[in-house]
Design goal:
Radius of gyration: 20 Å
Shape: globular
Structural class: alpha/beta
Order of helices and strands: HEHEHEHEEHEHEHEHEEHHEH
Strand order of the largest sheet: 2-1-3-10-4-11
Number of helices: 11
CATH architecture of the largest domain: 3-Layer(aba) Sandwich
Length: 329
């Protein structure tokens, strides 16, 4: 499923919808705002993309809803512990969850989750996408996707690619690339992104999926070669880099994503209020700039569009896990 690169929602339209959401809540006798402090739950450590977005959003949301908003990092099991807490929480709007790609990957990897990733959540809005590119070591004998694919087919299993670990989005995207191109490239998992990139720069692995804002400074210094963007259109941060389809690979866009969820059964007026407030924040120039500095593209959505995106992503990654016979201990 190709993801939109923007939200198609104007700030005026979002703000205009907010009074209607509040009025609807009053008319139905349902609260449109939480009646106490709100926690943004993050299933990752401080300093990660999830945490950065949460800490940027929290003060704005607090001001808009008139309640304290705090960020809590609850790590463990690739975000499963945080998601489980929200899936079992009251639908009072006081506990929200920020998720990223592992939310759609773990159902295929773990199978028996303690929650239903579709049925046990209310979907509020997308928050941002983080485009990724395909980087090759600087001395790779070729400078295009076609040459990488040709080399991989000549020597099955000999080429290597790095990732921050088994089951990470970088791992899954590269496995989808292998399935799409019919190539055999050996996975070398690391314990985190920094070490994986360091070994690509050190020419100890052949290629890697990398966030564009990390890759391009290295490419422009000649330390790696960036040969394609995993996107549907050329990226503003790297207009010289072709998309995969332009490079001859018919593979849908796979940017990393960040989204806001809530417990199941959140009252409709409160769901619409949160959607309106957060998408309005995403449309602010300062938000676009601050997220852009982290390699993210601010992008809100309707609750319905987010639900369908997550449903499609779960199906896609579950299929990749099955076809590539991926096992994570």
């Amino acid at each position: 499923m190709a993801r939109a690169q923007g939200n198609g929602i104007t700030r005026r339209g979002v703000l205009g919808a907010l009074p209607a959401a509040v009025a609807a809540g009053r008319a139905l006798g349902q609260p449109a705002r939480p009646d106490g402090p709100v926690t943004l739950l993050v299933g990752a450590t401080a300093g990660t993309g999830l945490d950065i977005i949460a800490r940027l959003l929290a003060p704005h949301l607090s001001q808009r809803i008139g309640q304290p908003v705090v960020v809590e990092n609850r790590t463990g099991a690739s975000g499963v512990l945080a998601a489980q807490a929200v899936a079992r929480a009251p639908a009072d709007g006081r506990l929200l969850l920020i998720v990223s790609d592992p939310f759609t990957i773990t159902p295929g990897l773990m199978g028996n989750l303690p929650f239903d990733p579709i049925g046990h959540f209310s979907f509020v809005t997308n928050l941002a996408f983080a485009p990724v590119v395909l980087g090759l070591r600087a001395d790779f004998p070729g400078s295009s996707v076609a040459e990488l694919v040709a080399e991989a087919r000549r020597n099955p299993g000999r080429l290597t690619y790095a990732s921050p670990g088994n089951g990470t989005p970088h791992h899954m995207i590269m496995e989808l690339f292998k399935l799409t191109t019919g190539t055999d490239i050996t996975h070398v998992p690391y314990r985190g992104t920094a070490q994986a990139i360091q070994d690509l720069l050190g020419r100890r692995v052949d290629c890697m999926v990398i966030p564009v804002h990390v890759a391009m400074p290295q490419a422009r210094e000649g330390r790696i070669k960036v040969v394609a963007a995993f996107s549907d259109r050329r990226l503003d941060a790297a207009p010289e880099v072709p998309t995969l389809r332009e490079a001859g690979v018919d593979m849908a866009a796979t940017p990393l994503f960040y989204a806001l969820l809530a417990p199941p059964g959140l009252p409709e007026p409160m769901l619409r209020m949160y959607n309106a407030e957060v998408t309005a924040w995403l449309a602010l120039p300062e938000t676009v700039e601050r997220l852009g500095a982290q390699g993210m593209v601010a992008a809100g959505s309707t609750p319905e569009a987010l639900r369908e995106q997550i449903r499609a992503d779960i199906a896609r990654w579950t299929d990749v896990v099955r076809r590539a016979n991926i096992r994570v201990d």
